[in-house]
Amino acid sequence: MTAPTIDAIRPLLDRLFEAERDDVAIIARIAADRSDVGPGAERASLHDLPAAELSDALSGVLIPVTRETGELLYVLARNRGVRRAVEYGTSHGVSTLYLAAALRDNGGGEVIGTELQAAKVLAARANLAEAGLADLVDIREGDARETLKDLPGPVDLLLIDGFASLYLDVLRLVEPHLSEGALVLADGMPEGPHVIGDYLDHVRDPANGYVSVALPVGDGIELSLRTAAR
């Protein structure tokens, strides 16, 4: 039996997770230095900043999915037999590596990622090339509301892990392409309903064609099953 691709890329993943260990401290320092998001400010968190401003503030931070979330992505993508996955918020490509590894083991396919920061796009492409998975991935540089307008076919899995204020915008953009039975994962639930409340209202309303559940995995996941393609 051939070893799963995920086993071959674990040393690279270990290195990337080690590199992000200081992310929390860096983000805390950024917030503390801003009067509009620091203690006593009206804004509750960095996620309340406009998307472009938040992207610039966090340009040097990896902020990947957690290892537990990455493993979940791999398991779900393998089990679903995913052939096309879309992710919003590629950063340095940790989640992309998990998804691409699953697609390799599924026999092929495509991961379409989108990332606003040019330096992060380069880093992600380098990591995917090192893993030997670049041929399965199309990373699009720019605003997801533009880069994801053109999708080549049905989407079996959507990962939303970018600016919280855009979660529902991205879902609505990709929604017409979701296949029946597609999985949608929204990462970063501890930021709370106050920043993605409209997104949660949408996927938790059966009338919108989803069955959805909150999972205590990693930073918190909202996992939604697309019950009917439109």
From TrEMBL:
EC number: 2.1.1.-
Keywords: Methyltransferase, S-adenosyl-L-methionine, Transferase
InterPro entries cross-referenced by the UniProt entry: SAM-dependent_MTases_sf, SAM_O-MeTrfase
Keyword set includes Transferase: yes
Protein name per the record: O-methyltransferase
Coiled coil spans: none
GO BP field: methylation
A molecular function (GO) term: methyltransferase activity
